[in-house]
Design brief:
about 80 residues, alpha+beta, 3-stranded antiparallel beta sheet, two-stranded antiparallel ribbon, 5 strands, about 10% helix, globular
């Protein structure tokens, strides 16, 4: 399964789960673009960014309320997750 976060104004608003095949390109590689195209083809609007439940990409698994740092291409924990 693949996970995509909808980011609005730099904040994660929701996370969708789609099948791996639904975000695989013609070469059999999972890509953000293929997943975004599938999500939009389902009639779901928004800016969707792939995230990983295992935190293999973009620093951490995106949760609702986290922010997305586009300059560094990472998700940043919401303030309540940060331990001081």
């Amino acid at each position: 399964m693949a996970h995509f976060a909808r980011v609005e104004d730099g904040v994660v608003r929701e996370v969708l789960v789609i099948g791996d095949a639904d975000c695989t390109d013609a070469n059999g590689v999972e890509t953000d673009e293929a997943g975004q195209a599938f999500i939009h083809a389902c009639g779901i609007s928004g800016h969707w960014i792939r995230t990983s439940i295992n935190a293999n990409i973009r620093g951490k698994f995106a949760g609702v309320g986290d922010t997305y740092d586009a300059d560094n291409d990472v998700f940043v924990p919401r303030v309540s997750e940060v331990v001081e």
